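Assemble and predict.
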Amino acid sequence: MIDRLRRLREAAAAIGADAAIVTHPANRHYFSGFPANDHAPDESSGILVVAEDTAVLFTGQTNLPWAENAVRPPVTAREWNRPWSEFLGQELQSLGVRCAAFEDRALSVSDHAGIQREAGEIRLVPAGNAFHALRAVKSKQEVATIAEAAQITDAALEAATLNLSPGITEKALAWRIEAAMHDLGADGPGFPVIVAAGPHGARPHHDPSDRAIEEGEPVVIDMGAIVGGYTADLTRTICLGQPPPEFIDRYNTVLSAQRRALTEIRAAMSGREADAVAREELSAAGYGDRFVHGLGHGVGLNIHEFPSLGKDSDDVLEPGHVVTIEPGVYLEGWGGIRIEDLCVVTPTGLDVLSAAPK
Amino acid sequence: MIDRLRRLREAAAAIGADAAIVTHPANRHYFSGFPANDHAPDESSGILVVAEDTAVLFTGQTNLPWAENAVRPPVTAREWNRPWSEFLGQELQSLGVRCAAFEDRALSVSDHAGIQREAGEIRLVPAGNAFHALRAVKSKQEVATIAEAAQITDAALEAATLNLSPGITEKALAWRIEAAMHDLGADGPGFPVIVAAGPHGARPHHDPSDRAIEEGEPVVIDMGAIVGGYTADLTRTICLGQPPPEFIDRYNTVLSAQRRALTEIRAAMSGREADAVAREELSAAGYGDRFVHGLGHGVGLNIHEFPSLGKDSDDVLEPGHVVTIEPGVYLEGWGGIRIEDLCVVTPTGLDVLSAAPK
């Protein structure tokens, strides 16, 4: 935690601030150890304030005993008074802060106004993505945790799809997957499991329904177990019974694009360049306009985080980034094919953490 | 949906706006039908814009097919371009909006700046809680859905605690509860199930751990099933084996305070007055400073929403509000007792939706 706080202070100093106000739940977790999520955008579970000599997680009375137990030294937990925004402004004053960097992407207009109201002459400067960026390169221990989450995810897919018969509903299969992740030791699903059968697969994001899965149709399964706050992310597209020729064709097209991406992508490429590797192959096969999302995204304490691998992304891949590689094609009325693996970026390529068969 | 949009337009007009920008996930759900949650404060699943003649849910390409399927007429779904904040500013211009009300408690400083950058002369005015307030009084259909969620929650507690023996861990019991809610037809848990045994019960909020539950200690169980987006909320405190005298004493003290609250609270009381009913009784028993949270909160598409029943709350109870009544006492080193029911406010009292035995 000491090293993380040092890097946070440096990032704040780089934009002229002598304190950092951390409001994003994943950043709060990373820099304090307190794992709580926020109930809603207007219901924060706590705010971390890091100044030159202090690092305090402020939270409500209800969460305080939990926070006291969870924060890692030298962070301490203290109770706030409501409204916490004004309380925070006063705290910044008592700490003698001159300029505080805040997360403008994760602080509401109302809370910002509350802090400023009580912060007097203290300047508040937006940090943009500066605090997020500090979480992008994962430590060995973080990679080990993510690898464990990926292993549980692989095993849960295998367990849940063993002896699967047509007629099971999307919802029932999603639940089997969730229960298998739990039984294998996950702390929970990192995001709602997607099971999208037949035409539903044309929606990259989809709420599992009561639709019964039919023989021969594509079934997109997107899932990830959480371990120690870190989420895995895995997609497989399966087919019950004998796959029809168009399934096999499309599947092999996506698989080939994914394999090429797994082989060619490496550190120092931009998100745009990485995306292009798979996009060119899908375009050549006539599916360019059916690959409706980016190739992948960073994964960590958030399921979607820096860097982005997409056609408009200038993010640059670095060794230690953990990213998904997930090309897909989506055909209205027919369904979708998506194949996704979780990978660690290395100087020379990608280490693939996912091992579920394709 | 037409009636909801009419009330939304009226609320915007009341603060001088001819359009509303809806960014809070629960409000977006309520006013559009699109049930997606946001992945993180800086990762919105969609923004609803309601102007004089239009109601459009803007979202990314990945979510668009889902959103198109989920929105209820007259709301339509359309794709945004990124960054969506600037795109939205341009849209407000094309719609001829003069003044747009936005949710200052659920719009980030950065997104607000993006909208303003492209919105030219259009004024953006903060709506505060005005849009939330429109969800506070529940329709008959909403109450019926919440009652169903409450029934499933009651039944899940009964199923999960049947034949419970000491030695089961908090985590294992939490999972039994989650699985029972699923088996009984819930769409999921509305919030992470709390099982806090022995000293852990001194924390009102707690992550279930590997601690094995011992005979004779208090076990606080806080849980709620989701049905159709609406969450139930139920807490019971149980004891495996023969409860020791101090458990019985404390339990009866909390139960008596809760019964009094259930009997005396009615519409037209303030949140402060409602809270005082139970607080006075707990104080008289010497536990005033151990009742460390408010008496209750509104429940609906959010687990915590308007109105608040607490010692600083000026919210006024109205018929059709759905609220929790949950007094509790927390003793460091020993544990906690909390008893919570879900209730509908009526002109003359409270209709209790929870039926789990106490």
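The radius of gyration of chain A is 22 Å.
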